[in-house]
Amino acid sequence: MTSPARLAAVIVTYNSADVIGDCLRSLSEQTPPPDSVIVVDNASKDESRVIAAEFADIAVQVIELGQNTGYAAAVNAGLAALDLNTLDAVLVLNPDCRVRAGALNVLASALQEEGRGIAVPRLVNPDGSLQPSLRREPTVGRALVEALLPGRLAGRLGSLGELVTDPSAYERAGVTAWATGAAMLLSVAALREVGPWDESFLLYSEETEYSLRASDKGWLTWYEPAAVFEHIGGESGSNPMLASLMTVNKVALFRRRHNRLHSAAFFIAVAVGESIRMATGRRTSRASVAALLQPSRRVRELVS
């Protein structure tokens, strides 16, 4: 009989008092629960740290960073606090996630196959509906298609869109280029080879960069639909500052991985798409266009 995987969890909080308790409770109810749970707090102004520290059902170590260092930096701080020699994998988890019964064990089992470095679950909304989370690798063509087609239509047209929106695709386990970083189980072997998360992104695109960098080194990102996590979701679709940060970082990541010509074409495609949406009155797109033209503003606004 195969022994259970030795797992730890790293959760990054920022004003997460209304969700962190349920997140921790869902981990405590797994069979078995993680061996270690690290909550890294990015200077929350609410009771996030207190709730995590006083959680009684499992042992939780709280790390207070004292400032909002960004998601990747907080993940790295949590990973640094773990003894990887005693672990098989680490779950990087958003505080607004709840792990459904048995899901962590299913995800860990999926990660045991050779070549898989990252395993991601099926994400659902609080009402149980599918939350599209799988992505194809960013390309100029996909950016242009998503710029010109309304809503999530591009994701339904074969492989034209970056976001996979076809519900049938979420019924099949398999390799994906990357996935929403709300819940990612990372093998220790991959962690050692791929290295720390890139802290320059501050927020958004860090999970994309990590998955693509892992792929560069031969590690697959595996989607496992039998592992179900509930994810409330953030404000990136309605908060202009967060939306602009997501847009700018998407362009910055593409530039790191491609030549100047392709990077310029990608920038134009993204800018065209946001400009079209801005013309319809969308506030998030207006902020995104402004940030593309003056990207340094996004950091000042986030950390202020």
UniProtKB/TrEMBL annotation:
InterPro entries: Glyco_trans_2-like, Nucleotide-diphossugar_trans. Keywords: Transferase. One of its GO terms (molecular function) is transferase activity. Residues 10-131 form the Glycosyltransferase 2-like domain. This is Glycosyl transferase family 2.
